[in-house]
Amino acid sequence: MAKNQKKYTQEFKQQIVDLYNTGNYSFPQLSSEYGVAKSTILNWVRNLSPIQVSETGKRAYHL
Prior knowledge:
Blueprint: H1 10-21, H2 27-34, H3 38-48, E1 52-53, E2 59-60
Antiparallel strand pairs: 1-2
Helix pairs in contact: 1-3, 2-3
């Protein structure tokens, strides 16, 4: 049986990405606080952020 997939608004996704981009929050912190899977947050950051993120979740800033 398939799990019910949650739908998140674009505004919510961007809010999470913005929090991650401050450098004050990690994927596990955001996942725990907002109830969103770490892999989902990683995908949002990859798609909505100018900051590049590696497979391990490490930030890589481009100058």
